């Protein structure tokens, strides 16, 4: 008869242990009873980069990396991208269910009520050099919010938590737009609440007193779809950071600022920026084979390819590829698209990439769309961070409400010097 347990024999002692299995997982702490002697600390698992360790139970996002499936609260990403809006998806992530019409209106109102930023934040943004990287401005502005809303440290109060969520989702696009306007030396546009979340962002960035100004609805919709695709991705580096920092019970502004810092790295949300720089560096379709050869020799990576979890085409990349063509119909075509398509074509039939299951990820085409929308390249990771804020906040809230969670504190295997006595300075060689 099958039993949901794992039997382990320790060959050092000959002892056998029976360990319960739940959700195809064993509890790491159950290994602690495997000891050589009673003074022994007990067995641990070693898992650098958490390659095979589940650090939480979650009901937010489901990924099947082998089949290329991504679902938020059970809804397939393809259906959400096609039929939903970013703010509706943000509600779904945070509250667990799709809103009815009345709740959606309420939610949109709550977010738009919080999209003005404090004058101190405006002063802070203006204190940056004109060429400061926008992610530096995001990270600093969000952590500065922690000083403006000190009540946010009441993280165990659900009503206080909810208000900080509205504030962050409201204010982050405004910080994004102001950081952009600061960079190009133009006055700031304050939010227009008659517009959708993404149309308002484009308006705040673009508007220059033109007569009959209207945000291009195709571009606002494309950005909205990109926002849906980027909203959450379970326990990636930045989300794990949000949970890890938040587990100290610090306020969510500090946690989100840390998560944004993690996202900034070129192996994570900074990859969209790196893809564009790579395409510019390749410069011409005829240089693609040579570039691929250099990647295979280990002289760099094909940015926008590969994923820790997806060992199949990233479902987000499939949707983004389609959006890219729609955007290029509304804008002028991007010559770098041709290079990207050729890179993808060659890589997908090359043994190096096939053997390692390297497929285009979400960042491979998103940068081309952002560029068509005329965002500067440095701006791309910020455009990833705006929608990811809803995922980070949903995950943060779930962590706080989870009785099994505590302050995050991994173990280590100490391999340094054994105890030794201090040597005074004049006796050291
Ligand atoms: N180009 C060339 N070779 C690669 C690439 C790549 N993009 N990605 C992985 N490999 C190779 C790697 O060299 C290794 O080969 P070998 O076994 O011969 O040493 C093998 O594939 C496994 O790579 P890994 O680094 O162990 O895989 P990982 O799961 O630790 O890394 C990754 C995942 C996303 C960091 C990596 O694929 C990568 O650096 N990709 C490029 C950066 C990128 O596009 N990042 C965006 C990720 S999706 C958005 C997000 O989550 O933020």
Automatic annotation (TrEMBL):
<dbReference type="InterPro" id="IPR002020">
    <property type="entry name" value="Citrate_synthase"/>
</dbReference>
<dbReference type="InterPro" id="IPR036969">
    <property type="entry name" value="Citrate_synthase_sf"/>
</dbReference>
<keyword id="KW-0816">Tricarboxylic acid cycle</keyword>
<keyword id="KW-0808">Transferase</keyword>
<dbReference type="InterPro" id="IPR010953">
    <property type="entry name" value="Citrate_synthase_typ-I"/>
</dbReference>
<feature type="active site">
    <location>
        <position position="363"/>
    </location>
</feature>
<dbReference type="InterPro" id="IPR016142">
    <property type="entry name" value="Citrate_synth-like_lrg_a-sub"/>
</dbReference>
<dbReference type="InterPro" id="IPR024176">
    <property type="entry name" value="Citrate_synthase_bac-typ"/>
</dbReference>
<dbReference type="GO" id="GO:0032787">
    <property type="term" value="P:monocarboxylic acid metabolic process"/>
</dbReference>
<dbReference type="GO" id="GO:0005737">
    <property type="term" value="C:cytoplasm"/>
</dbReference>
<feature type="active site">
    <location>
        <position position="307"/>
    </location>
</feature>
<dbReference type="Pfam" id="PF00285">
    <property type="entry name" value="Citrate_synt"/>
</dbReference>
<dbReference type="GO" id="GO:0036440">
    <property type="term" value="F:citrate synthase activity"/>
</dbReference>
<dbReference type="InterPro" id="IPR019810">
    <property type="entry name" value="Citrate_synthase_AS"/>
</dbReference>
<dbReference type="InterPro" id="IPR016143">
    <property type="entry name" value="Citrate_synth-like_sm_a-sub"/>
</dbReference>
<comment type="pathway">
    <text>Carbohydrate metabolism; tricarboxylic acid cycle; isocitrate from oxaloacetate: step 1/2.</text>
</comment>
<comment type="similarity">
    <text>Belongs to the citrate synthase family.</text>
</comment>
<protein>
    <recommendedName>
        <fullName>Citrate synthase</fullName>
    </recommendedName>
</protein>
<dbReference type="GO" id="GO:0006099">
    <property type="term" value="P:tricarboxylic acid cycle"/>
</dbReference>
């Amino acid at each position: 008869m099958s039993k949901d347990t794992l039997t382990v024999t320790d060959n050092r002692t000959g002892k056998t242990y029976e360990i319960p299995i739940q959700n195809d997982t064993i509890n790491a702490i159950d290994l602690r009873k495997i000891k050589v002697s009673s003074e022994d600390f007990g067995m641990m698992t070693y898992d650098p980069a958490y390659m095979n360790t589940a650090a939480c139970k979650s009901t937010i996002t489901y990924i099947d990396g082998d089949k290329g499936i991504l679902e938020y609260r059970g809804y397939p990403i393809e259906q959400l991208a096609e039929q939903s809006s970013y703010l509706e998806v943000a509600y779904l992530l945070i509250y667990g269910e799709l809103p009815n019409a009345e709740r959606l209106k309420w939610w949109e109102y709550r977010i738009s009520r919080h999209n003005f930023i404090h004058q101190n934040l405006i002063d802070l943004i203006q204190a940056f050099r004109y060429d400061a990287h926008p992610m530096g401005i995001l990270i600093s502005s969000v952590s500065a919010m922690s000083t403006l809303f000190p009540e946010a440290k009441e993280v165990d109060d659900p009503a206080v938590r909810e208000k900080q969520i509205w504030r962050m989702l409201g204010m982050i696009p405004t910080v994004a737009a102001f950081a952009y306007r600061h960079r190009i030396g133009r006055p700031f546009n304050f939010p227009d609440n008659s517009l959708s979340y993404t149309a308002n962002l484009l308006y705040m960035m673009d508007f220059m007193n033109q007569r009959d100004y209207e945000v291009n609805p195709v571009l606002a919709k494309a950005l909205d779809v990109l926002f849906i695709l980027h909203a959450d991705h379970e326990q990636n580096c930045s989300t794990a950071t949000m949970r890890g920092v938040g587990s100290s019970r610090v306020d969510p502004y500090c946690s989100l600022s840390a998560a944004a810092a993690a996202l900034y790295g070129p192996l994570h949300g900074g990859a969209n920026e790196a893809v564009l720089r790579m395409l510019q560096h390749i410069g011409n379709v005829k240089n693609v084979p040579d570039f691929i050869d250099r990647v295979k020799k280990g002289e760099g990576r094909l940015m926008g390819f590969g994923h820790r979890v997806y060992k199949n085409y990233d479902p987000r990349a499939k949707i983004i590829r389609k959006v890219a063509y729609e955007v290029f119909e509304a804008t002028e075509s991007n010559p770098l698209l041709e290079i990207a398509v050729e890179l993808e074509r060659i890589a997908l039939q090359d043994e190096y990439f096939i053997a390692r299951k390297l497929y285009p990820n979400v960042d491979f085409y998103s940068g081309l769309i952002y560029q068509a929308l005329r965002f500067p390249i440095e701006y791309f990771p910020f455009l990833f961070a705006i929608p990811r804020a809803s995922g980070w906040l949903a995950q943060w809230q779930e962590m706080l409400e989870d009785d099994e969670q505590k302050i995050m504190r991994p173990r280590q295997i100490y391999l340094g010097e054994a105890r030794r006595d201090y040597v005074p300075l004049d006796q050291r060689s």
